[in-house]
Structure formats: structure tokens, C-alpha cells
């Protein structure tokens, strides 16, 4: 049996900040046997804990031979090992033997391990107090939930590869992934995304704001440490590709929304001249992706009801009928109201978001204008579900 180490890179630092240790073995024919097969065979024989401790000792000795004093060692823990009351003490003793402080070891805890037991949380807390860093591995698989993160308070959360796969296949999942990463950041966790094998995978990771990346695209498992500058060129090239992707999306969005910006400016001019809302927004309502127009007063309160395109009621509108009528609704906390007041006479465009009116994805364009009644904010919701299908 022997150890291999796959580097974990920091996107910001552009270098390896740790290594994930894995066990390898060879059978009688010399074929390399993956670690999961080795552990499966050990589980059948009832030798799982013994093999786990042997593997950890092997990893610790090999990792200590690396010419470095900073990188973390990531160790995957089997749930059975975690529930063993002597595990932490045994691991600390092994670390002492090789002269490695526990602060340089990240213990990867399977997200589904331990269930909801208080005992499991106590074990994790004890390991943390001993100096180990805790990584919750596989977040996003099966019945994962953010409550698990809040309860265990890991230092790092590793997103399950199924999230990456879903984001690669569905644009709406890719679009919300930065929000998930942001939620984990606000909860106090650094975020790692592994299993990155293509440039597309790596770009998704980069653009959703994860802290750490790992995968064959950057470097595969090896018995040797990588050079400090190994990932710099790759990360720089990815950053350049990401900037171009973002710029291309912005150009496409700007071109797509240009007719709405122009029509909204014209509608605002008509309002200033004294036209009613329905008359002023006639041109806007003729644009194919207009969902509704509405008017707000200076406090963010809606004046009158929504003005809808003629004969274009959607099935969604019928299902969300209790939300359709918005006269008197307060939108004072919405970005389209706040930004419009901040820069009057200029059109503001939101990012795509879920509209409460019909629970659909939309972009809102807004403009603040001084009418005969005082400052008012004219808004148009643009159906982004339709727009997104044309990407």
C-alpha cells in the first residue's frame, strides 16, 4: 500500500494550500487498486478501523516528508472511525510521533455521517478543540441541508460533485450556485469544490466564488508535492476566460434589453407630460417579453394596479392569482426602487430574480421621474424565463 496526494488550490492565492491523501494498493498482478475497493474489502473482513489507522499513519509519514511547513493535510474519515471514542487520541498520538501539529490536518467528515445525534456533534467539537480543522464533505447530496452546517460549524464545506454536474447541465442551477456559496460564507465556512475535470467545471467553480478547487483539471493524485507555481498559469488563464464570459453575457444582455430601456425612457417622458400610466406604457406593453408595468410613489408604495399586456395571461398567472393584484403594495426595499431614486432620470436594471407577482424569473427596469404629482418610479418587469431560453 502507498499514499497519493492530490493538491487543493486556493483560487485567490493561485497555489496549493493543502493535499488530499488517498490510499492505493496493488493486487497480485500489479494492478493498482483504488482506495474504495481496499476499504470495501476491509469492511467485509471487519478490519475497517485497523486499515483506517494504518492508512493515516502512512499518509502522515509521507506527508511529513514534503518540503513544506504550511500546507494542510486533508484526511477522509470513515463514519465508524469518527464514532470510535479513542479515535481522536490515537490520531493525536500519531501526529506527535511525526512532529505534525493538529492545526495542519483537515478532517473530512462525510455530510451524512452520524445522523442527527448529539454524540456526533460532541465528537466533532472535541476534535476541533484539539486543534484539527473540520471539513464537511459532500454537501448537497441526498438530504443535505444548511441546518447541518449550522449545527456542526465546520471550517470548510466541500460541495458534492452532483451540484457541479447539475450546474453544468442546467443554467438556472448554475445561476443560483453563487448564492449557495455566499450563504455558506455568511455562515462562516470556506468552500471547496472538487472533482473538476474540465475547463467548464473550473469556470463554474471560479464564477460561483468558491475558495478552494481540486480536480484533474488542475492536478491529479501523485506521490510528490506540486511546485508552488504549478497552478498560477491555469488560474490566470481561467480568470481571463471568466472575464470574457462575463463580458460576453453583459453584451448579450445589454443588446437584449436595449428595446426595453428605450421604451421605458419614452414612457417616463410621457408620464412627465401628463399621460396616464396605461397610455404612457403602451409601447412597453407591445414588447414580447414584457410581463407588467407598474408605478411607485416616492415612498415605494404602488400607485394603482399592474398594467398587463392584452390577452397574454399565462398559466402561471392563473396559479398565482392571489399575488397578481398589487395596488398599495410596498416595494421600498427592492433594488429597482432604491437605485432608481439614487440616480433619477436614468434606467436601472436588476439582476434576474424571482418576482412575487407570478413567482417567475424576471428582470426589472426602473426609472425615477419628476411628474406633476412629484417623484415617481416607473417600472417594467421583463420575463427572464423566456429570455434565458434564447441564450
TrEMBL record:
Pfam families: EAL. InterPro entries: Cyclic-di-GMP_PDE-like (IPR050706), EAL_dom (IPR001633), EAL_sf (IPR035919), Sensor-like_sf (IPR029151). One of its GO terms (molecular function) is cyclic-guanylate-specific phosphodiesterase activity. Residues 1-235 form the EAL domain. PROSITE patterns: EAL. Gene3D superfamilies: EAL domain (3.20.20.450), PAS domain (3.30.450.20). SUPFAM superfamilies: EAL domain-like (SSF141868), Sensory domain-like (SSF103190). This is EAL protein.
Amino acid at each position: 500500500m502507498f499514499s497519493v496526494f492530490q493538491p487543493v488550490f486556493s483560487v485567490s492565492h493561485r497555489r496549493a494550500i493543502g493535499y488530499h491523501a488517498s490510499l492505493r494498493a496493488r493486487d497480485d498482478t500489479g494492478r493498482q487498486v483504488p482506495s474504495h475497493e481496499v476499504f470495501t474489502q476491509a469492511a467485509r473482513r471487519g478490519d475497517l478501523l485497523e486499515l483506517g489507522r494504518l492508512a493515516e499513519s502512512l499518509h502522515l509519514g509521507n506527508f511529513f516528508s514534503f518540503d513544506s511547513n504550511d500546507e494542510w493535510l486533508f484526511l477522509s474519515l470513515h463514519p465508524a472511525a469518527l464514532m470510535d471514542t479513542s479515535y481522536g487520541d490515537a490520531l493525536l498520538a500519531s501526529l506527535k510521533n511525526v512532529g505534525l501539529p493538529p492545526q495542519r490536518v483537515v478532517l473530512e467528515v462525510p455530510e451524512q455521517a452520524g445522523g442527527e445525534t448529539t454524540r456526533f456533534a460532541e465528537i466533532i467539537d472535541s476534535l476541533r478543540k484539539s486543534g484539527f480543522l473540520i471539513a464537511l464533505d459532500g454537501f448537497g447530496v441526498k438530504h443535505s441541508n444548511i441546518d447541518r452546517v449550522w449545527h456542526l460549524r465546520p471550517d470548510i464545506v466541500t460541495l458534492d460533485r452532483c451540484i457541479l454536474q447539475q450546474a453544468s447541465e442546467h443554467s438556472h442551477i448554475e445561476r443560483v450556485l453563487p448564492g449557495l456559496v455566499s450563504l455558506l460564507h455568511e455562515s462562516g465556512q470556506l468552500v471547496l469544490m472538487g472533482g473538476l475535470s474540465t475547463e467548464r467545471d473550473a469556470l463554474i467553480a471560479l464564477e460561483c466564488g468558491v475558495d478552494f478547487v481540486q480536480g484533474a483539471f488542475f492536478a491529479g493524485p501523485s506521490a510528490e508535492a506540486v511546485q508552488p507555481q504549478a497552478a498560477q498559469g491555469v488560474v490566470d488563464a481561467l480568470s481571463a476566460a471568466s472575464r470574457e464570459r462575463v463580458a460576453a453575457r453583459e453584451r448579450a444582455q445589454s443588446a437584449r434589453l436595449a428595446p426595453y430601456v428605450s421604451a421605458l425612457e419614452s414612457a417616463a417622458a410621457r408620464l412627465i407630460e401628463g399621460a396616464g400610466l396605461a397610455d404612457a406604457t403602451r409601447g412597453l406593453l407591445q414588447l414580447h417579453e414584457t410581463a407588467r408595468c407598474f408605478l411607485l410613489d416616492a415612498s415605494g408604495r404602488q400607485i394603482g394596479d399592474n398594467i398587463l399586456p392584452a390577452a397574454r395571461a399565462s398559466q402561471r398567472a392563473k396559479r398565482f392569482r392571489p399575488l397578481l393584484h398589487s395596488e398599495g403594495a410596498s416595494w421600498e426595499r427592492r433594488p429597482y426602487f432604491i437605485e432608481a431614486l439614487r440616480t433619477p432620470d436614468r434606467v436601472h436594471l436588476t439582476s434576474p430574480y424571482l418576482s412575487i407577482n407570478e413567482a417567475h424569473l424576471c428582470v426589472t427596469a426602473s426609472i425615477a421621474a419628476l411628474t406633476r404629482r412629484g417623484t415617481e418610479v416607473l417600472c417594467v418587469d421583463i420575463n427572464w424565463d423566456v429570455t434565458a431560453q434564447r441564450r
